[in-house]
Design a protein that fits this description.
The protein has 230 residues and is an alpha+beta fold. Helix content is 43%, strand content 33%. The protein contains five helices and eight strands. Strands 1, 2, 3, 4, 5, 6, 7 and 8 form an eight-stranded antiparallel β-sheet that branches. Strand 5 and strand 6 form a beta hairpin. The relative contact order is 0.13.
């Protein structure tokens, strides 16, 4: 008899608590989980971009702090510069050859370097090194075109390829910007090859009011690419 009374009291207690909302219906749980998931997704998306920047900055710092050395590129530069239509000056310092170019209606520059990675001990694979270092130099080089923003680029291309123990990175963009009175033509390119533990990077940009000078510069960058061993 006592058992029946206790069962009845327990059933009544459970019914009362459910009616008060202490035991939530399944539909309420589902709504709560959906809201939480959405909020976390937005946060993760916003944090992702910042995380990538931190990772890239960390890689660049580790790269230049590692045991790397520069290899002479004077022969490569001399061969590629044969027949160059721009007046030019070459400054060789700290393992980097910087070529200043001057045309009739504009000018630019090209930086050439070859880095020996055989003792670097970097914990990154070949494609990661090529892509991150390539993007780093492309951004730096493109920024040299004063007054030019991403909106002024009329074409762009980015490629990374690898075969066994060697890889190649190439990224370039053409610029055309008009203020209603004059038009500026620009071109920037970064070309990098990693082969036999040596990373060769050629990165340059030009800005001119003459479209033909832009084409001449594009041809010059092609000559550098053709002379880099791959």
């Amino acid at each position: 008899m006592k058992a029946k009374v206790m069962t009845a009291i327990l059933a009544a207690f459970m019914l009362t608590m459910t009616a008060c909302g202490t035991i939530s219906p399944p539909i309420q749980n589902a709504v709560t989980e959906t809201t939480t998931t959405t909020a976390e997704s937005i946060y993760d998306s916003a944090a992702s971009s910042e995380d990538e920047k931190i990772k890239t900055d960390t890689f660049i710092a580790e790269f230049f702090d590692s045991d790397i050395s520069f290899v002479d590129t004077s022969e490569l530069v001399a061969e590629a510069m044969k027949g160059c239509s721009f007046d030019n000056e070459i400054d060789d310092s700290n393992g980097v050859q910087k070529i200043t170019l001057k045309g009739t209606n504009g000018g630019g520059s090209v930086e050439v370097m070859c880095i020996d990675l055989s003792k670097s001990g970097l914990p990154y694979d070949m494609e990661y090194i090529l892509e991150n270092l390539g993007d780093h130099y492309f951004s730096q080089t493109a920024a040299q075109m004063n007054g030019i923003t991403e909106d002024d680029f009329v074409s762009s291309y980015r490629m990374t390829s690898s075969v066994v123990s060697k890889g190649k990175y190439q990224r370039y963009g053409s610029v055309q910007k008009s203020d209603g009175m004059a038009t500026q033509f620009g071109y920037t390119e970064t070309y990098a090859v990693l082969s036999e533990n040596k990373l060769t990077v050629v990165s340059g940009a030009v800005l001119s009011s003459d479209m033909m000078e832009r084409q001449s510069f594009s041809g010059l960058m092609s000559k550098f690419a053709n002379n880099v061993k791959y």
